[in-house]
Description:
Blueprint: E1 7-10, H1 13-23, H2 25-33, H3 46-68, E2 71-74, E3 78-82, E4 87-91, E5 95-101, E6 105-112, H4 127-132, E7 134-142, H5 146-149, H6 154-165, H7 180-202, H8 213-244
Amino acid sequence: MAGSGEAAWRLPLAFRVVIIATQAIIPGIAASLFWVPWSGGGTVPQPMTWSLLAVTGAAWLVLARRAWNESVTLTADSVVIRNVFRIRRLPLAGISLVRWRHNHMLVISAEVRAAPGPAAPAGGRHRGRHAAGLAVAAAATRLGAAGYSGRRTRADEFADSIAAAAGLPPLPPRKAVMKSRQAAIALPAGLALYLIGTALKAGTNTANLIPSARSMTGDVSFLAGFMLGFPAAMVLLDRSLARLRRPGAGPAAGSPGP
């Protein structure tokens, strides 16, 4: 919990659940490669299989716990970023840039200087590198469907708070990938292209080394349908969820939220 004078932002609950579910691929791959330990069928002995599943399962639990605790905390003198793989503290005085990357990920650029340590011997080869500091760019927050619709969320407000605390101008508004009316047209069009591509691929002979014109047309239609339909679906989903939220029902000020 954030202490006095601190503000915290956490990934939305649905986002964290999706990340944890995706991480379950780690033990799933181990299970699929050496299945099935209880039936005796597999390519390795049962003890080795169970050991591998235990190790990968433990790794998944560690990563799942870190994904659940992903957050960004703004303190009086620094920004603390907790993600799956590491915890990074960026001093506000060293932050030079706060921006949205591809409309979805907040990136903070800063110069981090090494903490003072024991005096190095004269002519030490690491003196210059430590004195100069290290320029880093850390991914702080991520957006879900709101990254496609351009809808302003608490993540945008938190990003502006970080920029203001670092003495930087507020971030420019994020732009929507497409408007709601455009998405309403693009979604059925993308779905139609997706189905056409699937139908064309279903009737091709996969044994041929050189794909036929029909197969290549199906691939293009399949890909075009996905690239057109997925962003449109995200825009409409976010707009629908925003309409379901009642006015004034958002999270209280200072509490974590999307």
